[in-house]
Amino acid sequence: MNKYRLNIDGKEVYGLPGQTILDVCKENDIFIPTLCYDERTEIYGACGLCMVEMEGNPKLWKACATEIAPNMIIHTNTPRVIESRKTNLELLLSNHKGDCRPPCMLACPAGTDCQGYVGLIANGQYEEAIKLIRDNIPLPGAIGRVCPHPCETACRRGLVDEPIAIANLKRFAADTDEFGEDPFVPECEPDTGKNVAIIGGGPYGISMAYFLRQLGHDITIYEAMPKLGGMLRYGIPEYRLPKEVLDEEIAVLEKMGVTMITNTKIGEDISFETIRRDYDAVCVGIGAWVSTGVRCKGEDAEGVIGGIDFLRKVVRNEDIDLGKNVAIVGGGNTAMDACRTAVRLGADKVYNIYRRTKDEMPADMIEIEEAEEEGVIFLNLTNPLEIISDENGHCRQMVLQVMELGEPDASGRRAPVPVEGKTETIDVDTVILAIGQRVNAEGMEGVELTRKGGLVYDKDTYMTALPGVFAGGDCGNDKISIAVESIGDAKKSYLIVDAYLRGEEIKYEPNYYVTKKDVTPATFEDRERMCRPTMEQLNAEERKDNFTEVVFGYDEEQAVEEAHRCLECGCKDYFECKLISYANMYNVDPDRLAGDINEVEFHDEHPFILRDPNKCILCGLCVRACDEVMGVGALGLVKRGFDTVVMPALEQPLSETGCISCGQCVSVCPTGALQENLTLEKSVPLDTDVTDTTCAYCSVGCSMHLETYGDMLVKAAPDREGAVNKGLLCGRGKFGFDCSVMEGKLLEPMARKDGELTEVDYHEAFVLTTKKAEALAAKYGRNAVAVAISDRYTNEEAYVIKSFADSIGAKTLCFNNRENGLEKVLGVNATPNTINELLSAEVIICAGFIAKENQIIRLKLKQAAKNGAKVILVNPEGYAQDHMGFVYKTVETDNSLGFFKGVAKALADMGKGTGVEGFDAFKASVDNASVSEEAKEVAELYANAKKAMIVFQQNVVTTEAAALLGDIAVVSGHIGKARDGILMLKAKNNSQGIIDLGITAGAEAMEGVKALLVFGEDPDPALLKELVFLMVCDTHMTEAAKLADVVIPGTGFASTYGTFTNTERRLQVVEQAIEEDVVFSNWEVAAELAHVYEVEMPFDDIEDISDEMNDKLPVYRYAEMGEIYGGVLTCENAKLVAVEDAAFVAPLRSTDHLMNMIDARLPHAN
Amino acid sequence: MKVVVGQGSCGIATGAKKTSDEFQRIVAEKNLTNVVIDKTGCIGTCYLEPIVDVYNDEGALETRYVKCTTDKVERIVEEHLMGGKPVEEYAIPAEDEAFLSQQQRIVLRNCGQINPEKIEEYIATGGYEAARKVITSMTPDEVIEEIKVSGLRGRGGAGFPTWFKWNAIKSNKGAQKYMVCNADEGDPGAFMDRSVLEGDPHSLLEGMIIGGFAAGATEGIIYCRAEYPLAIVRLEIAMAQAREKGYLGKNLFGTDFNFDIRIKAGAGAFVCGEETALIASLEGERGMPRLKPPFPAAKGYWKLPTNINNVETYANVAWIIANGGQAFADRGAEKSKGSKVFALAGKIKKGGLVEVPMGMTLKEVIYNIGGGIKNDKEFKAVQMGGPSGGCIPAELIDTPVTYEDINKTGAIVGSGGMIVMDEDTCMVDMARFFLDFTKKESCGKCNYCRIGTKRMLEILERITKGEGRDGDIELLEELAAKIKDGAMCGLGQTAPNPVLTTLKYFRNEYEDHIYNHKCTAKSCKALIHYEITEDCKGCTACARHCPVGAISGEKKQQHKIDPAICIKCGKCEESCKFGAVKRV
């Protein structure tokens, strides 16, 4: 075909006729945003984001819908295009209701993902929690203790009862990590060759070092004091923040390779000039270390000291003689710290002087309360008027002006006004002025200063007027604030510094987030009231004469309990939301278009799918995917115009429509309007890792992405590149991926003692098993010992288990194996044809087909029908199937082989098959069959088609039926050719694999077995009755396990790697996504058992197993990953066999309890 | 003698059925065996309904009675039917005759003349002869050529050449082709299609048959809005009669050409007048537009070649074939041939349907035919083309009504709605009204239309409430431009037109609202108040009419309105005989 040449954004590209502009852009990596496009559905064109300009044409064109023409010149990024996209997004966002990110995170100056780590703690993922905290906070232990936590102020749980104890939980995570075995140290990128000097080792400097070092820059911190920590060390007393915590956190910095030069003051020990010359960039965070006075008479007396100066002296163990009476002026946390420190230093009377009441004090209420408990005397509504000194110039008395609260001022705060003429006088030996601080910028030559003496820097770039000199924290722009604010400055500006080092200029631009504006206590009326657990702490008597840390922090149980109270405000789909990502890409300002929001009341109880129509942007993808891709049509658009909303069919609850719970709607939703209902203890938005693997349920073998966070399985999504499924998945795969780690998971081995299963150690369990098996083998012979191997296990797992069985002379079986009737006819125990051949067949007979067992095959049939195939569904009565409206003909038979014998007879009568081996016996066996009209019609359609296929499910139809279907294919000649043959669907993901390994026997092999070791199967308990000894290795306490003498924990597919062989002999990759919380993997259990038998399995890992399999199993030696081995089987030795009368279908109960588990959880419509 | 009572929906609404029954009753009572009572469709002079025509035995119109309510029937029967003397005072006044005499009727040629439920009457006017001629003696190409000569352009809105569409579907390959009639007339104030459907359904059927033959289609579908029940009934009668005569169904006129028509009742969504949405609706889907291309001529109904014309377009076809394309082309303007039906409404003296040659000026239509502005107020503007159109201000009243000239003003000919506005009409409120319509009728598919029109409406609402902000005009302009660029279908793309044209011609009114908190036309309630001037004679009429008791005053003393109570309903102004109540 001729290619068209066109020019897009100045780039010469080629495309094929019929391709759209979007297709060509995608092929050429030219970015076009889309919200409603999915190549599997008809072009819809609703979102309008893909607009582009075409030269010589005044219109904007939708790239998704415009077919290319020769010599088109297209611009995808003109100002008009960008403006159109921006306004479009603004319109969408003006009608979008939700919280992209939780209020706690938005309130944190450092942008800490509080909801994230609180949720991780709730899920027991402490390591992940600290990693997440450390993304933003390099001093989590310190901040967790002292932060005034704006996050908690913003926390909506406060509208219900009390805010989540976010700070305490941070402290919990930090302490668990830092005082644990292996504290987390972030990885640093390779050295960049750039160096940065940081002046001041406080929260800003430490944070800046922490972030920049991770990017590979060489960092040196210059600190004037003897140790790093800044005000956290020298301004906060030990009883609130033990210095040990700070030391641990600074040690992390050291491990990262940050150089720290202490006791070095810039301007004194080294000149600022030198620093600037020697480093590529300089970050100044010198804090605000000068106490400000109250400007009252006599404040220059001896014995009057600044609050922070006082606290610093205490930390540095300098001599301080406070005398008996100490007055602290001020109402902030520093004042409280000074009060409580004075108490601890033994002062008789400690006064707090504050000109307003306690309610107006800026200090944390807990600090005020604890100070009061410790005996601090609060002289509220007083203000120093004069400090009276003795003859030595030492303060002795303080005259206080009594105040009262006046009218509220503009800010609503009631200003204190003096009560004319009313004063009080108190005796004082020391006066501590904790009023405020200012910056001493001496030594920072050339940096412009504010009127108050702070450093001036650009608020967007954090750079001072000196190139390459950045500033942040308390020292800059008169923004003296809390520690986390300084950390926030570093967080917001480190990428700017990094860019500067790379010669680029960027600005800090806050992200746009959608936030809910109308949340009130009524919003959470349905929540149970539950206060936060109280932390153990020292009582006032225990604590007031020492500097021991007052509060102990949460223990694990308390922390988890507290974390569970989180209301989960932030959108769980934030990390995959296309809308918000585009919004920030196009710098939207939706507020200018603010107006009514189409708020939708909704109610849904689907076990797996959460809907939030208020986040819906009406891209229609869910509706179209459900209909066009999945052939279900459970969703539709209701109402019109601005009021349009997506609703389940007939406005029923979703689970009561025809929904098959495949989650395709969730997968295609570009926002959070459709979400997975996660099974995590606490669902939180997480930026997950993705592992590409293969589903472990049916034999189709769908490729999927497993999303994980740490060792948590979060969700699964179909792989669009999947060789078989091409972006499709059924409910089992989409929502059953985590069954193996769900509630009730076995974690410890057990053995039956006095009739009860009791936890034992592995050694005991293994020894018991081998001894019993050996004893029974000795008594009844080798054949009395059998090993059952699940067909859900990987080839590698099954291989090791079989090797173990072989090594002890035990026979192997799989209860899920049904004798393959086809084998008698075709001579192979595999399906001769492959799945995608269906798409090009002319006639497809689908015999004994239960769609829910292989939903993806139903979709292949649908696609085949769309391509023109006549699909004939033949099922016995009682087996009607949903969502198969595409079939050409449905035949309902009784549950016998009568119908197909009729078809076979009709075929033979047409003269088909004469000369094929076994024809006579076959013909005789069907001669008595009656040929119904339908049978005749089906036989003719089938016989006359050029390419015809038969599809059936091995464990649904009987062995005899399978043989008869084989006969029908052979007699008509529709066998052994591409797109012309039989697709037999095996029961499980690796049913073909275990056959290839030689595990071919089924339940019938139980004859005479006395000792059975079961790996991952849950067979019918009736089959286990005759056993003397039973060991079961599985993930949960299955029915079989309940009968067992020994139970050993097993694992699921997400924690192993290896291969599955799907029904069409395609070798598929299984990748490990998580570690499960058990000691031995499935194959290691077998290896351990072998070990007790003194047989050593020569494997360290799966690689070793794989290597040996390649050596010993020729079939796998040349099998390529992802490919079908053997191609279409030619079945040259096929012969016809006579088939006895039998039932048509007899579904075999699945022995995979994980599959049974997800089937039970899926709504019945599946 | 024959008494024909006009019974289109408009006539029936004013009581024509009762009038007809009354004639039946009295004629029976008086045993007048020589009098036949019959019915016909709408003649267009809606303001004169019910209309009764009396024909003499030779079939000539003797007298046309207007506003003929039941109370007039007895006298007409006695004096005219029995006495042979027309009741002159009930007859149509000469000036109203002018309303009709200045028209040139092609589309409406039979409306109000024949009984739409009798195919014989249609045949008697030469009906189905054009179809016969086409099918028995012409090739499809010849038919298309004749239509091309006529210069007929689509009467539904866009004015696309009809021959071109027919030729396109003729040339496109498909197992089956469809001739669809868009009878989803949805523009507020436009009812020409209804008039044809109710008054002359066979002319539509004949047009579709001819089109079907030309384009190679064998199936026709009329997508008719369900709000036109009478139209559907009459269409069904007409189709049954045509089938009986062999004009529909198999082997038309004895040839091997098969063509049949069915009706699909639309469910009342304005957007279904958009052709792709109409097709979606025909297919049983939600009525939402689809992207073009592909155009329906290539992939329409069930992805097969489909031609869509509206009722008025089809209604021209038989006439063109019968009289020759040139006869049609001889009428009208250079690029806009033939005649066009307009629906005159709003502040006009004589509202109704008029069919005039294209190229007539707005002034001629409004003043010469429509009789000028109600109450002789000042003409301010005319909204043309419904909610997709725009307003044309008084200074452009000499604009000829052609596709090109009207487009230049920012409005469109559209389906032919003309809503006349006088000095009391607030143009901001007018734009708000139309946008409210399109916003409600948006299907909700594309963002720009769904949310954009809503946001524009919100801005207009706040402006008319006196809460407009600095920057609102610019925001309206920005949104309008982007909606035009970005909306998916005609509904959205044209939705900003009323706003854009009023901004173009009446920007001062927007500014007055926003910056001076003043409604220029003194129409927006939030921005006006009522005062009683010194001209008050103290007659108390206003106080008596005030529904909320906001007016106080002694008899023969100047009255006063309490602004705290007043709801600005305007009853006082209406009731004051001395012009003493003023809107300020």
Count every beta strand of chain B, where a strand is a DSSP E run of 2 or more residues.
17
How many whole angstroms does the radius of gyration of chain A measure? Answer: 37 Å
In the CATH hierarchy, the architecture of the largest domain in chain A is: 3-Layer(aba) Sandwich
Count of spatially separate domains of chain B: 5
- Relevant CATH superfamily of the largest domain in chain B: NADH-ubiquinone oxidoreductase 51kDa subunit
Structural class assignment of chain A: alpha/beta
Please describe the biggest sheet of chain A, giving its number of strands, its sense, and whether it closes into a barrel.
7 strands, mixed
Low-confidence spans of chain B: none
Question: Could you say what the CATH architecture of the largest domain in chain B is?
Answer: 3-Layer(aba) Sandwich
List the total number of helices of chain B: 23
Strand order in the sheet with the most strands of chain B:
10-9-13-11-12
Q: What's the pLDDT, averaged over the residues of chain B?
A: 94
The average pLDDT of chain A is 95
The helix fraction of chain A, in percent, is: 25-40%
**Shape assignment of chain B:** globular
Strand order of the largest sheet of chain A: 29-28-39-38-37-30-31
Secondary structure: number of strands of chain A: 41
Which descriptors apply to this entry?
heterodimer; A: 1166 residues; alpha/beta; Ubiquitin-like (UB roll); Fumarate Reductase Iron-sulfur Protein, Chain B, domain 2; FAD/NAD(P)-binding domain; 41 strands; elongated; B: 584 residues; Glutaredoxin; Rossmann fold; 5 domains; five-stranded mixed sheet; four-stranded mixed sheet; 23 helices
Detailed description of the structure:
The complex is a heterodimer of chains A (1166) and B (584). With 1166 residues, chain A is of the alpha/beta class. Chain A folds into 7 domains: 4-77, Roll (Ubiquitin-like (UB roll)); 103-184 and 513-563, Orthogonal Bundle (Fumarate Reductase Iron-sulfur Protein, Chain B, domain 2); 195-289 and 439-501, 3-Layer(bba) Sandwich (FAD/NAD(P)-binding domain); 290-436, FAD/NAD(P)-binding domain (3-Layer(bba) Sandwich); 595-741, Alpha-Beta Plaits, CATH 3.30.70; 755-819 and 992-1117, Rossmann fold, CATH 3.40.50; 831-979, Dimethylsulfoxide Reductase, domain 2. Helix content of chain A is 29%, strand content 17%. Chain A has a 7-stranded mixed sheet. Chain A has a 5-stranded mixed sheet with strand order 2-1-5-3-4, sandwiched between helices. Chain A has a 5-stranded parallel sheet with strand order 8-7-6-9-20, sandwiched between helices. In chain A, helix 27 packs across helix 29. Chain B folds into 5 domains: 2-92, Glutaredoxin, CATH 3.40.30; 119-329, NADH-ubiquinone oxidoreductase 51kDa subunit (Rossmann fold, 3-Layer(aba) Sandwich), CATH 3.40.50; 339-422, Ubiquitin-like (UB roll); 427-515, NADH-ubiquinone oxidoreductase 51kDa subunit, iron-sulphur binding domain (de novo design (two linked rop proteins), Up-down Bundle); 529-583, Alpha-Beta Plaits, CATH 3.30.70.20. Chain B is of the alpha/beta class and 584 residues long. In chain B, strand 15 and strand 16 (560-561) form a beta hairpin. Chains A and B meet through helix 2 of A and helix 17, helix 18 and helix 19 of B.
